[in-house]
Specification:
Number of domains of chain B: 1
Strand content of chain B: under 5%
Structural class of chain B: mainly alpha
CATH topology of chain B: Four Helix Bundle (Hemerythrin (Met), subunit A)
Number of strands of chain B: 2
Order of helices and strands of chain A: HHHH
Shape of chain A: flat
Strand order of the largest sheet of chain B: 1-2
Number of strands of chain A: 0
Largest sheet of chain B: 2 strands, antiparallel
Number of helices of chain B: 7
Number of domains of chain A: 1
Oligomer: heterodimer
Radius of gyration of chain B: 20 Å
Largest interface: A-B, 41 and 44 residues
Helix content of chain A: over 70%
Largest sheet of chain A: none
Radius of gyration of chain A: 16 Å
Shape of chain B: elongated
Structural class of chain A: mainly alpha
């Protein structure tokens, strides 16, 4: 059972996503960082998770080229817009 | 083996390889359009947070990161089950397919239960959509997302009812990919919502 689970790419992606979620939570609850830096770190981790979900679960990597470009652009534009707006606030 | 469309792709000038494009392009367009609508919501939230920083800080402190975090974990796991269901559909493994669809639905229902507890908690504490700008955004965005979860559960339920045999599965591989794609979008949007509304100070 265990070796099969370790070879399962989707399962490894799930573990990575859960670890990043835990990391975000730990950052908020225990790390003493400047507020804006902490916020940017959490947003960057969130958009890294978005990319993992898009590539591995939604399979944008196997989709038409236009789809891949659209999803990568969405991540960069929306992530950039949120982080920029947050830093300006 | 499968009735899904395959598109021949020329690789290295000489070798032909079969590449499979997941889901119909129309589903991708629908999902992308929905993601753009949510992107505008994210923009509105960031903008209003800039206008009312104290109100948003106070409002965020009243939210339960435990409920939000639990729902993030639940949705990530559900997305994994949905991906496994799509994989099983391509393998035409009807037993695994139906098992993973059921597990995805169970996780989705768990999300609804946690959301119900969270909303009940807020209502009993006297917060609602008319309380202030923070709560208007909180209920509007999480509520709109909740509608997506309910719609996704309906699609999954439809698959569970209509696909019971390998023959039926053969004709529904693309539909399963489409529903899976929609479910992953619901998960992806929650990841951003959770970070933006519950976590970012």
């Amino acid at each position: 059972m265990m070796p099969y689970v370790i070879r399962d790419k989707l399962f490894l992606v799930l573990v990575a996503l859960l670890c990043i979620t835990l990391l975000s939570w730990l950052l908020i609850s225990s790390v003493n960082l400047e507020e804006k830096s902490l916020g940017v770190m959490i947003l960057l981790l969130a958009f890294f998770k978005v990319r993992l979900i898009a590539i591995h679960f939604m399979e944008t990597a196997k989709a038409q080229r236009l789809v891949r470009i659209a999803f990568e652009t969405w991540g960069v534009v929306v992530g950039g817009m949120i982080i920029f707006g947050y830093l300006m606030g | 083996m499968s009735t899904v469309n395959v598109i021949p792709l020329k690789v290295s000038g000489s070798e032909n390889q079969i590449e499979h494009h997941p889901a119909e392009i129309g589903v991708w367009l629908f999902v992308f359009a929905d993601m753009c609508i949510f992107a505008m919501y994210f923009g509105v939230f960031v903008w209003e947070k800039k206008l009312y920083p104290a109100m948003f800080e106070e409002g965020q402190e009243t939210l339960s990161t435990e409920f939000g975090g639990l729902n993030t974990v639940v949705l990530l796991i559900s997305s994994f089950f949905a991906a496994k269901a799509v994989h099983s559909a391509r393998m035409l493994n009807i037993d695994a397919y139906r098992r993973f669809i059921k597990l995805t639905m169970l996780s989705g229902l768990a999300f609804l239960c946690v959301k119900f507890l969270e909303y009940s908690d807020k209502f009993s504490a006297g917060f609602d959509i008319a309380t202030n700008e923070f709560y208007r955004n909180y209920f509007a965005f999480t509520g709109f997302h909740l509608l997506h979860v309910i719609l996704g559960l309906s699609f999954l339920g439809w698959l569970l009812i209509s696909v019971k045999t390998t023959e039926q599965l053969k004709g529904n591989v693309k539909a399963s990919e489409g529903v899976g794609l929609y479910w992953h979008m619901v998960d992806l949007l929650w990841v951003v919502l959770f970070s933006l509304i519950y976590l970012v100070p």
